[in-house]
Amino acid sequence: MEGAGLGKQDGALERVRAAAERVTAARGFELVDAEIRRAGGGQQLRLFVDRPGGIGLDDLQSVSEEVSAILDAEDPIAGSYTLEVSSPGLDRPLKTEADYRRFVGRLAKLSSYELIDGRRHWTGRIASCEEGVVTLSLEQEKTDARIPWAKIAHGRLEVEFPQQG
After folding, report:
1. At 116, is the pLDDT very low, low, confident or very high (cuts 50, 70, 90)?
2. What does the alpha-carbon distance between residue 106 and residue 103 come to, in Å, rounded to a whole number?
């Protein structure tokens, strides 16, 4: 979808996120993330939507159509943009403490803003997220890493395939 926006760019992402959250929440979906990036001669607005058990193409299409109609009416983005609505994928980003609690037991990769116990990157199973600390069970090291929530720069689930045999 191509749109022309006359609104100010300041706060555009927040207004887009609010519109997308209204649509996704009404359908029982989750808005995982929203971003605006420069692309070609305009901008690309990307929305990542999910729901327990996964989300289908028809669901993504209907969210795209409804969000598009709202954005056309509210006009929060200055200039032209292309809207893309997709699933966050199997290696979905972990954005909130609730995400870490929801995916306890899953394999994840985390990076911190600063060194914690001599390192900035971990891969392990999410053991817990309590009192502002994410605990990862590091299977290879046979120990746990405790990373303060406020120091996590990036986190995402790792893709796992069922064991054969």
Report:
1. very high
2. 6
Q: pTM of the predicted model, to two decimals?
A: 0.74
Pick from 121, 144, 23: which is nearest to 74 by CA?
23
Complete edge-to-edge strand list for the sheet that includes strand 2-5: 2-5, 79-86, 42-50, 30-39
pLDDT at 7 over 50: no
Tokens 């971990």: give the residue.
122
Q: Under CATH, domain 97-157 is a member of which superfamily?
A: Ribosome maturation factor RimP, C-terminal domain (2.30.30.180)
- Give the integer Cα–Cα distance in Å for 125 and 142: 11
Question: Strand 107-116's sheet: what is its strand order?
Answer: 143-148, 133-138, 119-130, 107-116, 152-157
Nearest residue to 93 (alpha-carbon basis) of 146, 16, 31, 24:
31
Residue 48 has pLDDT above 90, yes or no: yes
As its CATH architecture, domain 2-86 has 2-Layer Sandwich (3.30)
